[in-house]
Design goal:
Layout lengths: L14 H11 L2 H6 L4 E2 L10 E2 L2 E2 L16 H7 L2 H19 L9 E2 L22 H16 L11 E5 L12 E2 L3 H17 L5 E4 L3 E2 L2 E2 L5 H4 L10 E2 L5 H4 L10 H11 L12 H12 L5 H17 L19 H13 L2 E5 L16 E4 L21 H9 L4 E4 L3 E6 L5 E3 L31 E3 L5 E5 L5 E4 L5 E4 L5 E5 L11 E6 L2 E6 L5 E5 L2 E5 L9 E6 L1 H10 L3 E7 L19 H13 L3 E6 L7 H6 L2 E5 L6 H10 L33 H4 L17 E11 L2 E10 L5 E11 L10 E10 L4 E8 L6 E3 L4 E3 L3 E8 L7 E7 L9 H4 L1 E2 L5 E3 L1 E5 L6 E5 L5 E9 L4 E10 L1 E7 L5 E7 L8 E10 L2 E9 L2 E9 L1
Parallel strand pairs: 3-4, 5-7, 6-8, 7-10, 12-13, 12-26, 26-27, 27-28
Antiparallel strand pairs: 1-2, 8-9, 11-28, 14-17, 14-25, 15-16, 17-18, 19-20, 21-22, 23-24, 29-30, 30-33, 31-32, 31-36, 34-35, 36-37, 38-48, 39-42, 40-41, 42-47, 43-46, 43-48, 44-45, 44-47
Helix pairs in contact: 1-11, 4-5, 4-12, 5-6, 9-10, 12-17, 13-17, 14-15
Length: about 950
Amino acid sequence: MTADRPPFRDPSLPVDARAADLLGRLAPAERLALLHQFAPGVDRLGLAAFRTGQEALHGVAWMGPATVFPQAVGLGASWHPELVRRVGEAVSREARAMRAKDERVGLNVWAPTVNLLRHPLWGRGEEGYSEDPALTSAIAVAFTRGLRGDHPAYWRTAPVLKHWLAHNNETARDTSSASVRPRVLREYDLRAFRGAVEAGAVAGVMPAYNLVNGRPNHLSPYLGSELRTWTERELLVCSDAGAPSNLADSQGYFDTHEEAVAAALRAGVDSFTDHGTDSSIVLGRLERALERGLMDQEDVDRAVRRQLTVRFLLGEFDPELDPYAHETAYDTAAHRALAREAAEAAIVLLRNEPAGGAPLLPLRQGGRIAVVGLLADAVKLDWYSGALLHRSSPLDGLRERFGADRVDFAEGVDRIRLRTADGRALRVPENADGESARGAEVALDPALLAGRTDLPPLTADAEGTLLDLIDWGDGVLTLRAPDGRYLSVAGDGLVRASADEPGGWVVQETFRFEAHGDGHLLLHLGTGGYVSVAADGVKVAAGRETAAVLSVETVERGEEAVARAAAGADTVIVVAGNDPHVNGRETEDRTTLALPPHQDRLWRAAHAANPRTVLVLVSSYPYAVPDAAATLPALLWTAHGGQAAGTALARVLAGDVSPAGRLPQTWYASDDDLPDLFDYDVIGGRQTYLYSDRTPLFPFGHGLTYTAFGYEGLTAAVGAEGVRLSCTVTNTGAVASDEVVQVYARAVAPSVPRPHRELVAHERIHLAPGGTAALAFTVPLSALAYWDVAHGRWAVEPGAYEFLAGPSSADARRTVRVELAGEAPGPRPVLEAGLAAVDYDEQTGTVIVDRSKVSGDAVTPAADAPGTLLYRACDFGDGVTELAVTAAGTGEVTFYAGAGSAELARLAVAPTGSPYAYATVGAPCHVRDVTDLRVELRGPLRLAHVAFSC
């Protein structure tokens, strides 16, 4: 190339060659500077500044107004990959169009979230797609393909999958460790990531805050041993915000930040998201780590090359050739229609029983409709939503569809006054300011948005102001002024009616009553202070001693207004659910599946006044509502549906479109059915629809339509590429509708625990009345395999397998059986390689921990009590005479054969001085033939390996 056009500017060269050339032209200090999220430009090379990370989970977020699609869990409920691909395309087109006007809009998008929805109390369940890895993978592949675009050389945006790996708890999320056995790791958690990576539409991943098997995810050895083996492309690993600092701070995994950043870089982290836009702190740590030899220039170059590769794919260096450089599609008619279509597709009809003859839904024409409930006139956004361009609440949608004169409304809030001990009541001053409250601003990090201080604070006088009180559950309250603004607390501690909605990283609009004598103290949850009444206004004080003792004067209970509206209507629509910023969100898990008592009272009041009551649950997660499911004739669920949610709901209720969404996760009947939040062993813990032995309230994949479908002619043929299945599905009813055809597989007589049934294929189809579709699926044999811990490989066990086709996991309309040759598992060859402690078949009372800070696993008792490991069918051949354990720490290891109580061997492990200092201890042991081996661990030791010798 000529001097004025170096090779990295030559689009005819391969991307890796161009990246290598540009890397070679960067000075060492310039390379190091590129490792921070906010990478500076290099003017002498024409290299622009670059930011990793643009939130785009269900629309462009944090950058002002954009098309808002249903929450991710709602997209999962559509079971419609092609629809989700179009949503991804629309999001990426808007990102490009917005970037053309504001360069702060990034093209390295941090989406989608593919963490499996293993536990329904997880606070971030709204961000994932499903509890099932196959469905999650299918939806993620579709969304990332839409985000990436279809040009062979250039990407519209560069998606990063979140959050690597096994991340399902917000409680202690940066210090807790998920114990993930090898089978669960490979059969469950990794599968959610692998499909999208192998599909070639993923630019990288973001590690999670938590630890897996005792090691922080930002040091995950699986970034190298798994992730980067799934594709020949370079993958960019971006840290989560603040996580590099956590390694030496909250996690205490390293003594110094220099050790931490060096270890993360060497493990495969390429971009450090830490300390916001101030790169100096992280770069200083990296510089010192380089000086001390904790990392080398090759480590830096490797990470920079990966970032540059993404930038080449985004067309940064070829603006004249970038097919997406002049994108203008923003808030188009097509995007608005797609938002409505997606919201319609996400609606799940859970129950639809007769009410006076025919099923209650769709609503009959004529008559009055009462729309009631705390979410009846709400369009709730979550932490990863953009600002609304358009707004349609359930009330808006129903009035638009049926006519405002036929639709009545009652929100169901409690209307109260808060009186002080001297008889005064809190008053909200008149506010002539018509500007939007907090939330309309644009910020790369909305956590930095401050509350308003330009409005007058609350005062107290004889009359006071009537406030709307909403109890969101767990005693968490919001209080709202007559003008619709929520009471909030800004940095000066004064209480004002200043927020359009609860929100922010630390929500400043939530309170809790605490009983105090004959009254209550009002605790402000955002600050932990108590409300007091002072001369300069109502404020939050630090302690209880200056808090105001308040009495609650209830003027009207919400259920009274709801009952009045319900009694005067032909049909009642109760809209209940959650606010995504309260009781279940990032940083906060839920404590219960139960619907909050306030909302439980509302649907009961509506039904008591009018038996023709429909309950619509609009929520980020499942609820346990057994009474409603047994009592009410109709029940629906939808995730928060974005800008067109109300229109979509009204069209479904009216029968303009038949509901056909399906549950992407199990709805359990009660909290008693749930595993421990921190138990990640879906196999041993019998979790999700795959393994749970409980009867759910509504099963995975459940969802009804306004018509009926018949399934016929399910056939199966085994070939070299897998099992070929075919069936026909017919709309036997009178209504055109989508149907989600689901195919599950099960091993009939497995030798190890396998799923009750496992989704292996699905397709969403549309059929007119009487219409028939012939469907064909090919299930690869790999989808029927399990991870054989005895031999460290994937295996398809020989024997019978059943394939079940139907509309849900619990409704198999047709079943066919095949015989697979497979490979018999055989006993464990313990004489060849011994036993890796982590490769157990069953365990009680143990957790997996890190063998070293780089790689490897060990097993330790979970508490002071002994832990037990079981290894089945160990082949000792003609017999062994000695064993040796490799362990760290101190304690005792005892071995038993089979179910017997006689000891084979007992070893004491003397203190090794460190959890990472391993010693080998031997003892006589006489055992032969094939038998189960049971190992008991006592004390704070870490067992890594057991070897046997003759």
